[in-house]
Amino acid sequence: MRIPKPNPIWFFLSPALFLIIVFYVVPLFFSIYISFTPLQNWNLARYLDQISLENYERLFYMAMNDPDVTKVVKTTIVFVTITLIFNVLGGLILALSMFFMDESLSLPYRLIWILPRMTPIAVYSLIWYYFFLGDESGTLNSLLLRLGVIEKPLAWGNSPELLPESAWAIIILVNGLVGVSFGMVVFYSALRSLPREHVIAARVEGASAFQMTRYVLVPQLKWHIIYVTVWQLLSLITTYAHIFLLVQWGAIDKWWGSPWALYVFNTAFTTSDQGFAAAAAVILVVIGGILGILVLRLMGFKKLMQEPKGEL
Amino acid sequence: MVEVRLERVSKRFGRVVAVNNVNLQFPDGKFSALLGPSGSGKSTILYLIAGIYKPTLGKILFGDRDVTELPPKDRNVGLVFQNYALYPHMTVYDNIAFPLRLKKIDENAINDKVNNVSKLLRIQDLLERYPHQLSGGQQQRVALARALVKEPEVLLLDEPLSNLDALLRLTIRAEIKRLQQKLEITAIHVTHDQAEAMSMADYIAVIDRGSVQQVGSPWEVYNKPRNLFVATFMGSPPSNVLPGRIVRENGIWIDVGGSMVKPPERMVELLRESELDDVIVAFRPEHASIVKEPEEGYISIPAEVFVTEPLGRESIVTAMVGGSSVKVLMPPEAEFKPGESVYIQIQPDKLMLFDPITELNIEVARPGKS
């Protein structure tokens, strides 16, 4: 009698699968469950059997009527959209400029742009905290005062006459400078792996650097652009670490500087309303999922995922 | 069409000298080959002509026009690569039209030109396809069409046949040659394959270590190699090389692996003048034969058979002379056993002698003539 051979797929998948189930799938379903309960103060024993849609109703009502939550919604849309464009386009421009650059120049250049990502979050945020500090000791204020552009120091992230644009500009800049290096690295390595004959041929055929970029290089980066866009979109929707510190230290307005992810975090961990926070988080995941799929559809992801050549 | 001339051109990459003081002329409307092993600098020379590299020293001229400082797009050259370098995201039509679109030519004129060149290369039926839907030979035809569509003055070919399989290579080889003759374009073909260079080119420039070793017609380069490198690079199998010592007693003799050889009459005077002590004896595999007993009128060297390789049309017999191996082409019916004692019999008029220090052919490269 032959013992049936176990499928090797499970052998290879099991370590990753175990981690994913324990740390992603279980918490995910648990969060969804919590979002239907009025859980407060992590009192799991008391609230978990009261199932209702109340959190979602409240959330929807607040997003429409609560002025603070409305600010969060607007901030999220502006922050994600502009930072995403900044990251993808900026990464592409940086990668292209490095591609046309001499190797001896491009290495230090690359290093400078990766620095924000290498710097610990708290240190990096602190630099920006002091840069935008509201009194005359802030870097930006002291610079502009010295140059005579302004007469008295401005509270860049808080001053009512500058909000909301100034707070948005700060969080977009702080996150954008971290995120832009991701696209840069992906695009640059993709450009470097193109056959160099393509570049030589285009030059011989008379293409300027712009024409080469437009007609030869960027079209061949299509899949990389899709990948970076989706990846950055999903991570921007859920990012809050730098912004959390800047808000916490008072560098930016609490509401005009809070994207949805930070709002979820603050609701869950600084107030006692975990059921409500879970509902907010579920909404975020659903919107993230929909947007991700939408982008993949728009950009033709199906063509990327081809049938494997040969059998697995 | 135009003649291409390199005057004292050198190219350094950091401390590496890739091209060293090269003087070359590629005649107008002719097919020239740059032949050399990999790393010899032949592709660098091609890229210098295309303008991808700027020479460190020297001048490059197209006819009377000094193009040394011109960017590639102002030189009007067509370039074809070993890996075709077609743009994968464009159809065949768009690939061919690309150089014309860059010039912002009217779309109707582009259409005419693309159709004409496609007819010339017989790829009219492939215009709607993408490069990955084509075979290697078709891709190379498209690459040729893209290079030719803007009617360049010079066609540069960088190992265009090396990625093709052996049979296809013969077909495309003939096609490129036919095309070049029809268009009467100045073509420069880089290759490491001496058979390819011999069969296609009107002129061959043999390149090694960044320097020109010899320039001449295929016949000259094959039969009158200027130095040892050319002799041992050309031919398949290449020339045989044996070390010899000159003995000046009772006239002039050459000691090859212990046996005394009388050099042909035309070389005696040259050897007497040269004051050489050693000499390198060379001959081509097809200019010798293997016999059991030496015959009159030939140069005979005793040898021992090592192995026989039958190739159908002929056999290659490897024999040992002293410590060196010698390959001789024999008719397919020739049979020799390993270890058999035989004589290698060389046609005296085909014997070549090289100076072991300068490696120059003592007949071709006289002092003052290069």
Please tell me about this protein's structure.
- The complex is a heterodimer of chains A (312) and B (370).
- Chain A has helices at 8-34, 44-47, 54-65, 67-99, 103-118, 121-131, 139-147, 165-193, 196-204, 209-220, 222-238, 241-248, 260-269, 274-299, 301-304.
- By secondary structure, chain A is mainly α.
- Chain A has two domains: 7-37 and 46-52, no CATH class; 68-303, MetI-like (MetI-like fold, Orthogonal Bundle).
- The radius of gyration of chain A is 24 Å and the shape is flat.
- Chain A starts with 7 loop residues before the first helix and ends in an 8-residue tail after the last helix.
- The model of chain A has no long low-confidence stretch (mean pLDDT 87).
- Chain B is α+β, with helices and mostly antiparallel strands and 370 residues long.
- Chain B is elongated and about 80 Å long.
- At the A-B interface, helix 9 and helix 10 of A face strand 6 and helix 2 of B.
Summarize the structure.
The complex is a heterodimer of chains A (312) and B (370). With 312 residues, chain A is mainly alpha-helical.
Largest sheet features of chain A: none
Name the overall outline of chain A: flat
Which superfamily, in CATH terms, is the homologous superfamily of the largest domain in chain A? MetI-like
Largest sheet of chain B: 6 strands, mixed
- The beta-strand count of chain B equals 20
CATH architecture tag of the largest domain in chain A:
Orthogonal Bundle
Strand proportion of chain B: 25-35%
Low-confidence stretches of chain B: none
Protein chain pair with the most extensive contact, residues per chain: A-B, 17 and 23 residues
Q: Low-confidence parts of chain A lasting 5 or more residues at pLDDT below 50?
A: none
The side-by-side strand order for the widest beta sheet of chain B comes to 6-7-8-3-9-10
Gross morphology of chain B is elongated
Output the number of helix runs of chain B.
Answer: 9
Structural class of chain B: alpha+beta
